[in-house]
Specification:
mainly beta, 11 strands, single chain, about 50% strand, 11-stranded mixed β-sheet
Amino acid sequence: MRKIKSMKNDTSPPSVMDSMEEKTIIGENISIMGDVQGEEDLLIEGSVKGKINLEKHHLTVGSKGQVEAEIQAENVTISGRLVGNINAMGKVEIMKEADFNGEIKAKRISVEDGAYLKAVIELERGPQKKTEPAIRLSDHTVSKPDKEPFSPAGETEKRK
């Protein structure tokens, strides 16, 4: 595993360290069996089997990543292969090269054209505003139409 720093804000000069965020990379030749827990973003290009808990951070399964896990993260991006369940507080992105099979619970989801997706998806709603109907039925009266309803030719004689 290695750590890299990436810029959160591209307009910041490289010397400003507080605008940087750390990301750990599980490389292509690394396999992990067990629980992974962290306080920074994670990019998986290797293999992980178990549980992944990055509650306030972003998980990315890279194009070479192979993951079989129960996942808890803020946001999840999938470009590789993932089998398991995702519980994201934010967004799940399934890229065109992704292969996903499992369950997703998130606030938002996006799926690129070409991605393989076999899933049960539950999208959470934010708090709903109570809306009032535009017209209150009790405030209006309903009256009979002034004219007989239109009927095609020949139908009028049948009714008489």
